[in-house]
Amino acid sequence: MSEEINPQAVNEVPAAEDVAVNYADMTLGELSKQFESLMADDERMKRAKEAENIKTAFYKKLSKEKAELKPADTAEEAEASSNIFESVENGFKHLYSLFKKERAEFARKLEEERSANLVAKQAVIEDLKALVDKQEDVTATFPEFRAIQARWREIGPVPVSAFRDLNDTYQFYVEKFYDKVQINRDMRDLDFKKNLEAKQGFCEEAERLAEEENVIDAFKELQKLHEQWKEFGPVAKEYREQIWDRFKAATAKINKNYQAYFEGQKEKYEENLAAKVALCEKVEAIVAKEEIASSEWSTLTKEIEEIQKEWKTIGYASKKENQKIYARFRAANDKFFERKRVFYAEYKDGMSVNAERKLAIVEKAEALKDSTEWKKTTDALIQLQKEWKEIGAVPRKKAEALWKRFRAACDEFFARKEENAKSESGIRENLRAKKTLVEEIKAMEPSEDKSLMKDLLQSFQEKWNAIGFVPFREKDAINKAYRDAIAEKFGELLGGGRSSRQSSGKNAPKSQRPLSEKDKLIQQYNRLQQEAQTCENNIGFFAASKNAEALISQMQEKIDGYRKELKELEAKILKMEEDTNETEE
Fold first, then answer.
1. Which of 151, 283, 423, 533: disulfide with 332, CB 3.0–4.6 Å?
2. Nearest to 427 by CA among 580, 538, 576
3. Model confidence over 270-300: pLDDT tens digits?
4. Could you give the CA distance from residue 369 to residue 381 in angstroms, rounded to a whole number?
């Protein structure tokens, strides 16, 4: 039975997947350091695939960061950013160029060595073939056979395309030598024994590997054992099947462990893939939202960052799916952050427009703050406040200053309005008080006691003068009502009753009715009282004007002067009345 390993049985076992490093999560600096570390390794020529993965990740990252770079405000900033990327790229390009040259040289030399080894082994086979054809004494041929075997083992690897045919040819002539050449049985048995001992050692090593926890390393070591097994010749016929079955059993166990490991890995890969798909769907759902308010971006960004952290805790998917799912996840993340970048760019532009709109509102409010059109201006300011609320955010540096100006203008107007309202309320109260006093005078029953009537008149006059201003539109009417009431109740005391005045010379010309001294004083009294009332009402208008303090002070001095004169006139009229009464008595 042939001891050649069934290639189909071995090839059915899937090749070990290299434990991948996720270079996509590394920065440009980290990728450069990773490549520097690789270049420092003495075995770097065996890490060509890793070098290519680092290179691919580096240029993807570089392109992405260039695309995400915000437009520079100045030419100097743009040049500085460009220089940074150029420096990083040139450094990496230099390292990769050195590796590429070294790799090319290594591959060239390796190919030359393998081609030379192929020629050497073909020569060994030719020598072995010639030895098999010889019919010489065993003492001459067997040492030569041993030397051929040693030469074969000393020669290194050959091109992969030639390995199988070359090895099959060599084994064919080795077995033909043992079977056809008539050698000394003792020497042949000794050779079989040595081969058996070597292959028993291979079986023991394979059985140890079958118990190894690291099934990937065990599988790799098994491949080496199979290569070494081929290097040794056959054992005695009675042991050939037994030793091969033993080695094959250990091989089968290692292959089974290896298959089971990758079945488990396959299940784990599927779980990891499902978890990563779920995370992709979460990010994609966020990106798919039609409207995202400005207040949501911070929360959603934190949510995305948490999803990214969770992604890093999940292991790899299968080699076939891992890159695809990562590309999907990266695309969803990139779409979110690109949308966020566009939003804030537009948001910033919008804030500048909003600032201009709010400034216009501030200027309108400041133009209205001194207005005395209380109702119209109140409605206008309320409308401006509504417009202010409808306008979006403005840059933080301008927001507070604009709000303070707007608030100050509104506060100033409404403070003035409140003061005016208080003043309006007061003069309305004064009007009600004067109307009450007029009604009180009308309701009074006149007395024959002139002294009592004088006291009542003086009391009513003091009460009237003590009451403040009334609304301008009402002052003439209330003053007339007061004068009429006083004339009706105190007419005789002040200059004769109404009936006497009406009956004496009602239709007589003025020239026929000369005024007495007392009448003149009464006329002067009424005129001054009217002037004082006019001044009091005017003060009410001045109070609603800006910078009115000087005018109010001046008007108050006039009023005080009128009141002083009125008291003096009143005293003179009363004195004349007393003198008249005494004369009559």
1. 283
2. 538
3. 889 899 899 999 999 988 888 888 778 889 8
4. 9
| Nearest residue to 277 via CA among 338, 335, 326, 312 | 326
Tell me the DSSP string of 36-68: HHHHT-TTGGG-HHHHHHHHHHHHHHHHHHHHH
Q: Helix axis angle, 28-39 relative to 75-133, nearest 10°?
A: 30
Paired tokens of 25: 């999560």
Q: Which residues are within 8 A (CB) of 474 and not within 5 positions of it... i.e. 6 or more apart?
A: 431
In this model, does residue 3 exceed pLDDT 50? Answer: no
C-alpha–C-alpha distance, residues 263 and 297, integer Å: 43
For the segment 62-85, what is each residue's pLDDT rounded down to a tens digit?
888 777 766 655 556 556 666 777
Rounded to whole angstroms, the Cα distance separating 297 from 293 reads: 7
Distance CA 20, CA 26 (A): 13
Among 291, 279, 294, CA closest to 332: 279
Region of 291 (left: φ > 0; alpha: ψ -120 to 50; beta: rest) is beta
How many whole angstroms from its chain centre is CA 172? 74
Chain centroid to CA 354:
20
